[in-house]
């Protein structure tokens, strides 16, 4: 049975080709399903995925739909660090270990859409910020997050900013390499990877190697339930054997060949399961 699957996006926005949801829609389209992008206030479809590139989604952007529609990620309307993290540090905390200074919002604190004059100025200032100057320009560097030996090294202006957070810095290491783990899921389908880098803030562009993961901690599954995710990507590390969630992303990107991988095909198979066999 052919299904109508809609991505609910921001007005004027459009998912980029490397978005995981875009790649899944390509697979579903090849399987005979109808795909649409919409920012309409009411959406009549069999399945709707909320896919707005914004840390906080205002209620007026969330579409209405028939009660029979499967609405994925409908409860994922705030993925800020203050909402996601369980490891925030305040000036009064007794914690004395290393800390990392981050933007509260995803996308380095600058929304992808809409880009206003204020956001353009914000990005220009961030271009001037680096590991040596960020304290003086009062802006987090655009390429990495500052890591400090303890919270006493955090500048006073950071504590007064609502758009910046301070977290415990939790490093997982193997063979002198920093490790970041990712968990990608849709419904009950999932896959993951273990990423290795020589720098503490692990990014895809600086990877030394990676390997796939097939098992994920129950603690993360509880975090997924707490945050209301049906679809997305979690970044985490193991600290003293305990998983620690670092970031939750509801509009993740992936890199790879144009041909869908077995992992992507497996993820796409979640659709009929979520639809109760109707697909």
What's the helix and strand layout?
Layout: E1 4-8, H1 20-30, E2 34-38, E3 47-50, E4 70-72, H2 81-84, E5 99-103, H3 117-128, H4 134-137, E6 147-148, H5 156-159, E7 164-168, E8 172-174, E9 177-186, E10 189-197, E11 207-213, H6 218-227, E12 231-239, E13 242-249, H7 262-268, H8 270-274
Parallel strand pairs: 1-2, 1-3, 3-4
Antiparallel strand pairs: 5-6, 5-7, 8-9, 9-10, 9-12, 10-11, 12-13
Task: Describe this structure as you would to a colleague.
This protein has 3 domains: 74 residues; 81 residues, no CATH class; 96 residues, ATP-grasp fold, B domain (D-amino Acid Aminotransferase, Chain A, domain 1, 2-Layer Sandwich). The protein contains 8 helices and 13 strands. Helix 1 packs across helix 7.
**For this structure, what is the CATH homologous superfamily of the largest domain?**
ATP-grasp fold, B domain
What's the architecture of the largest domain in CATH terms? 2-Layer Sandwich
Structural class: alpha+beta
Shape: globular
Give the percentage of residues in beta strands: 25-35%
Task: Tally the beta strands.
Answer: 13
Number of helices: 8
How confident overall, as mean pLDDT? 90
Unreliable parts? 108-113
């Amino acid at each position: 049975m052919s299904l109508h699957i809609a991505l609910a996006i921001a007005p004027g926005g459009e998912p980029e080709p490397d978005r995981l949801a875009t790649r899944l829609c390509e697979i579903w389209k090849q399987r005979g399903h109808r795909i649409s992008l919409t920012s309409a206030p009411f959406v009549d479809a069999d399945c709707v995925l909320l896919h707005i590139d914004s840390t906080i989604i205002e209620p007026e952007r969330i579409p209405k739909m028939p009660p029979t529609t499967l609405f994925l990620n409908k409860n994922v309307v705030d993925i800020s660090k203050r909402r996601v993290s369980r490891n925030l540090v305040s000036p009064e905390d007794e914690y004395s270990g290393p800390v990392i200074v981050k933007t509260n919002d995803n996308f380095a604190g600058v929304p992808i859409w809409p880009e206003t004059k204020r956001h353009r100025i914000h990005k220009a200032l961030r271009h001037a910020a680096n590991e040596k100057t960020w304290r003086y320009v009062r802006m987090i560097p655009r390429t990495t997050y500052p890591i400090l030996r303890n919270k006493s090294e955090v500048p006073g202006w950071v504590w007064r900013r609502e758009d910046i957070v301070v977290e415990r810095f939790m490093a997982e290491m193997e063979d002198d390499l920093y490790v970041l783990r990712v968990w990608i899921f849709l419904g009950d389908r999932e896959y993951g990877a273990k990423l290795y880098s020589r720098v503490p803030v692990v990014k895809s562009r600086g990877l030394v190697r990676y390997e796939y993961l097939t098992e994920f901690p129950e603690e993360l599954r509880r975090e997924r339930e707490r945050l209301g995710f049906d679809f997305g990507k979690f970044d985490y590390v193991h600290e003293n054997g305990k998983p620690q969630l670092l970031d939750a992303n509801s509009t993740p990107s992936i890199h790879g060949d144009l041909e869908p991988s077995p992992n992507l095909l497996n993820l796409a198979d979640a659709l009929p399961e979520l639809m109760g066999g109707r697909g």
